[in-house]
Prior knowledge:
Elements: H1 38-43, E1 50-57, E2 63-71, E3 84-89, E4 95-97, E5 99-105, E6 113-123, E7 133-143, H2 152-157, E8 165-169, E9 175-179, H3 182-185, E10 192-197, E11 201-209, E12 211-212, E13 228-236, E14 241-249, E15 268-270, E16 273-278, E17 281-285, E18 296-298, E19 301-307, E20 316-318, E21 323-332, H4 335-345, E22 352-353, H5 390-410, H6 448-453, H7 456-470, H8 487-490, E23 492-494, E24 498-500, H9 525-532, H10 540-544, H11 555-568, H12 571-587, H13 604-608, H14 612-621, H15 630-639
Antiparallel strand pairs: 1-7, 1-22, 2-6, 3-4, 3-7, 5-6, 8-9, 8-16, 9-12, 10-11, 11-13, 13-14, 14-21, 15-20, 16-19, 17-21, 18-19, 23-24
Amino acid sequence: xxxxxxxxxxxxxxxxxxxxxxxxxxxxxxxxxxxxxxxxxxxxxxxxxxxxxxxxxxxxxxxxxxxxxxxxxxxxxxxxxxxxxxxxxxxxxxxxxxxxxxxxxxxxxxxxxxxxxxxxxxxxxxxxxxxxxxxxxxxxxxxxxxxxxxxxxxxxxxxxxxxxxxxxxxxxxxxxxxxxxxxxxxxxxxxxxxxxxxxxxxxxxxxxxxxxxxxxxxxxxxxxxxxxxxxxxxxxxxxxxxxxxxxxxxxxxxxxxxxxxxxxxxxxxxxxxxxxxxxxxxxxxxxxxxxxxxxxxxxxxxxxxxxxxxxxxxxxxxxxxxxxxxxxxxxxxxxxxxxxxxxxxxxxxxxxxxxxxxxxxxxxxxxxxxxxxxxxxxxxxxxxxxxxxxxxxxxxxxxxxxxxxxxxxxxxxxxxxxxxxxxxxxxxxxxxxxxxxxxxxxxxxxxxxxxxxxxxxxxxxxxxxxxxxxxxxxxxxxxxxxxxxxxxxxxxxxxxxxxxxxxxxxxxxxxxxxxxxxxxxxxxxxxxxxxxxxxxxxxxxxxxxxxxxxxxxxxxxxxxxxxxxxxxxxxxxxxxxxxxxxxxxxxxxxxxxxxxxxxxxxxxxxxxxxxxxxxxxxxxxxxxxxxxxxxxxxxxxxxxxxxxxxxxxx
Length: 650
């Protein structure tokens, strides 16, 4: 019997139906467009069939929310009748309703999801010591998903106004703040998105801009606003802790003329960045660093320095379009909740789809099944690694992660490619030149050994490297609502000359050519004062020397991003891919840059003006796809929305 066969409800008597072997191409119109004879088969999988297995190391807690990604045949999810098609077999054999979230989709809408995240609250096997290999079976047992019921303390925390208050100080010491959960809590709030909702976990993403608590005028006036912040808040079933991921940025686009709160800034100097929580809550960091400061009490609250002040009155610098990311857990201040939050931060509940057969001899859905080979935008079957010792791979990942975490915590230089020491809140990865030559880390695939060996440390290393790369990635802009700014929002129409895009963009805006965003109008009185009084951080020149990884080498940034998406359905990483895609589109556009037909040489418009011979060559090769330049290849997997529309918007 073929390993790519699976029993169906109509297969009594031993008959089988084969999956179609997917054909994977690289046509510019989409990276994965194949026929769908497996769709009807997927819809008729027998109730109770064992279709996938999640493998992981046993967590340090006796119960936990298991989560992991699984590739699917066409037509499995979403279901026309709603609800979830899966349950998980718990350690004692009981069936636990599973929550299903879309990671990515097939190019054809009717085919549904090609990769999903499966979540369920389960028990650790009674005889399993932490770290021992354990498995959980996913079976086809449909149910109606229920709402997440967090622990009572976690649930009540989010109902309190300003319970999650992020605040910063500017060059003059003025305080700016934002309630990270305000728009979710207040009726009519519109700056949030629901990313997960089901029986095991609930995630919402918000965007806020820090504004002055006490606006001031005069020689030491306040700015109209400080940094923007994306917050990703996750509640877990029965848990009294929350996950909180942050993207802090100085990258507002200026799109909305009705508010100054999205106006861009130039250099943004700040003294500190802190999270203020009720005193009976604790902030834990997934990745410690020298500027994660000592908490202090303030009335009935406790303040947690995310970026503590520099010595000698110097100020931190968040450059124009700069950004950085942090991953936290907020736990109730009791030993059990703190331990469970720490386990979650270490990704102990993350399972990996395992290759193999079920008891009936049918191949499980995994990255190694040719019928569910949906890994990365290329949608290739991952290679078997039979000669590799999975335990040895995990041990090597453990050692690598430990060394890099120690480097980050100490703010020290390290082995190539992370030779830079810490630079305040930043600890950039790689060479300063964003267009550094060579093939280092330009990987079409990554995470293969991590997936094969079910390596939690391999996944965490991808998250750490992604954080360090993001510290230097100053090539994105966000609108007031939090989404990346986009071509259609800036396109203008001239009655005589037609549409044009008044933006000159090459890995960022070329402001000397055009500045529709308003950077040139941004106030500079604070940065001027900083320069005049020598308040710049001692590492300012070193920080600014790091260029954004450019489009021709963007794989250095996105290879980890994609590992986090395809193996963890990570919301922060998903949005980073979207932001890179939209930023690239600003520079690779089919429109002219002005009414006089001015056209950037790196844009799509100029490249469409091809010779007759080239057009003939393209017509001949049309069925096989277009061979793009390396600058396009560098972002193709982040940009194609029909093949990689993939990234479910939530």
